[in-house]
Design brief:
single chain, 404 residues, alpha/beta, seven-stranded mixed β-sheet, 16 helices, 47% helix, 10% strand
Length: 404
């Protein structure tokens, strides 16, 4: 599932009672957006519930179901449940029928995952034993104490073989963008993030798949072990006058630091307003989007090159010109792009031009020849050939056909 594949993907969502609309949408909408960017229905979804009836969300809005959850299927499964799942489905009150059906699904499904409270459901069914997993930050200590057989980690999402988990709604959006990155490539994933005007917490780049770098919730016998949620909270309660005095001093210090940060922010805002009225080195008076959906590119030279590409779609710059303005040699720019994005700069540039062409074909009535010129192709036939090789259909086909 989380690998480069040409086959289309159908994902089944098992939506449990009182899941949130936001959590469900964080799974479905990125797939819809990816279809729009790709130009075809590469992603499909099927919503199921334990009994086949509508899923009544936490806000009371029902989500229609396509049917009841059945263990036997060739499609990957994603269990969607919200923060209240531990109270309803936790180790004290498990759902035996659902647990048996989920356990049976493991023999048939290529991958099974869960988001937020759905992780508890998988844990109940024994599907996370010996695996790394995450859940909502409020439940991390409780999950670690209740299921020592799972390596519970404080990460936004985790991919571990045929199991995958995400901590919450925003983390689920990260997970789905990563799915698109691994299947369709980084350029499409970055365009997807941009489509939602989304700012990921870390750069989307090879090797950043699971939000690595965050500390694990330790479950071994070391001094850092989290024994229980209550115990960890109890440790934060002042035990005497000395602690109370220390806490009061800390609050005063925090207030002073907040005031200083606000003052610095006001100064920074003023400087930013001043800078926005000046021309940048790209000849644009306004800050430009990098096309990365807010994802941070660690190397400023790569970010500069991407901005140059986006600013020059109709009249493409040479790689030598881009490298020179980024302050590196063309060969060094190649290496920087491959390290940061996993693609060559020329390929990324072409993807940007063809992606813009797809948008114009679908959203405007401009002629194909005009769109070819607007995306840097002097010859409409060369444009059509490049479009066909990249997207699998001719520009005229994209214009005739819409995507759900």
């Amino acid at each position: 599932m989380f690998a480069a594949q040409s086959d289309d993907l159908t994902l089944e969502l098992l939506v449990l009672p009182e899941a949130t609309l936001l959590l469900t949408a964080a799974v479905i909408d990125p797939m819809r957006g990816a279809n729009r960017l790709i130009g075809r229905r590469a992603y499909r979804w099927r919503v199921t519930t334990p009994d086949g009836g509508p899923a009544i969300t936490a806000s009371g809005v029902p989500i229609p179901a396509d049917g009841a959850f059945e263990p036997v299927s060739r499609h990957p499964l994603l269990v969607v449940a919200s923060y209240n799942a531990p109270a309803r489905l936790g180790p004290q009150r498990p759902d035996p029928a659902l647990r048996r059906r989920l356990a049976g699904a493991a023999a048939h499904r290529p991958a099974i995952g869960a988001v937020e409270g759905g992780v508890w459901t998988l844990a109940m069914a024994g599907l996370l034993e010996g695996r790394r997993a995450t859940t909502h930050w409020e439940d991390l200590p409780t999950l670690a104490a209740a299921h020592p057989e799972i390596e519970v980690v404080a990460q936004r999402f985790v991919l571990d073989g045929p199991r995958f988990t995400a901590a919450g709604a925003a983390s689920t959006l990260d997970l789905m963008i990563e799915l698109v990155r691994l299947r369709q490539g980084l350029t499409t994933a970055l365009a997807l993030a941009r489509l939602f005007d989304y700012v990921p917490p870390a750069a989307l780049a090879p090797g950043a798949a699971d939000g690595s770098g965050l500390r694990p919730i330790r479950t071994g016998g070391d001094p850092g072990r989290i024994r229980s949620e209550a115990g960890s909270r109890a440790g934060a309660v002042p035990s005497g006058p000395a602690d109370a005095t220390a806490n009061r001093d800390a609050r005063v210090k925090d207030a002073d630091e907040r005031s200083a940060r606000k003052r610095d922010a006001r100064v920074g805002d003023a400087r930013l307003r001043d800078s926005r009225v000046q021309k940048t080195h790209l000849g644009d008076a306004r800050p430009r989007d990098t096309g990365l959906g807010g994802a941070r590119v660690g190397d400023a030279r790569v970010a500069t090159a991407i901005r140059l590409m986006e600013s020059n779609l109709a009249e493409p710059l040479s790689m030598a010109a881009i490298a020179r303005r980024a302050g590196v040699s063309p060969r060094h720019l190649q290496a920087l792009f491959r390290a940061a994005l996993g693609v060559a700069p020329k390929a990324h540039y072409l993807d940007l031009r063809l992606g813009h062409a797809m948008h114009l074909l679908r959203e405007t009535r401009r002629s194909i020849a005009a769109i070819a010129a607007e995306t840097g192709f002097a010859d409409p036939s060369a444009f059509s050939g490049a479009y066909l090789r990249k997207l699998g259909e001719r520009p005229s086909q994209t214009r005739r056909r819409g995507v759900d």
